[in-house]
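Quick note —
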Amino acid sequence: MQILANLIVNTFQMDHQSSNSSINSNLNTVIMSNRDLFLKGARDIIPLLIAAAPFGIVYGALAIANGLSVFATMGMSLFVFAGSSQFVAVTLLGVGAAIPIIVLTVFVVNLRHMLYAVSMMPYVTKLPQKIRVLMSFWLTDESFATLSKGLIDDPKMPNFHWYYFGCAFAMYFNWQCCTALGIYLGQEIPDVTKWGLDIAMVVAFVGIVVPILKNKAQWACAVTAFFTALMTHTWPYQSGLLISSLVAIAVGVYLSEASDGAKNETGGKP
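Predicted structure written out below.
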């Protein structure tokens, strides 16, 4: 991981210099700082790497079971890199769905990433476009969750994108390895997809989200998301996930603004 950190730091060094010319006199210090952030991000996402491993294994096995070749299965993980969308895509491919239907369905499933991107905008507006493009490709539920917690713990984290790259690259590498393992197991062991391994991801996300809920608005947002997700989980193409997210966000924003307004009226007292 240390070697990978050095490699990625060197790859983006030119972009970093163009946006921060003042670092030229302290280049070694900045590189060490970036490396530390990268490695910290990789360490912080480890619980979700463990939780995502069964999910990736099931995907690899399911894709093989639905008739995809080894190269197509790995290619989807390498170039699409979107767990739930990959599950939807291989399922639709398995039943012979038309390509436009598959593309549209995957697009709908991935709409939640737009919500993630919007919340990250205040932090990335000053970054070079090349870095933002790579960040968008590596944006996943896991990397976003880890980054969000990292920014809550340290809102003024310097060069936070290196922390994000650590999270994202670790997740990307983990997903490729788990896909490859799933391909092997899918060919050697029957019914791997029926083992229920994907429950680990749900447990991991609960463990990450619950400790960072600090006020009524955040708890209301989480509870709303839980119940609306239960009510809409049978909706086609995982559209219920998007609707649940929008409803929960609306509830959280409304209560947060109401709380801020009440504090202003009482002179800052809760």
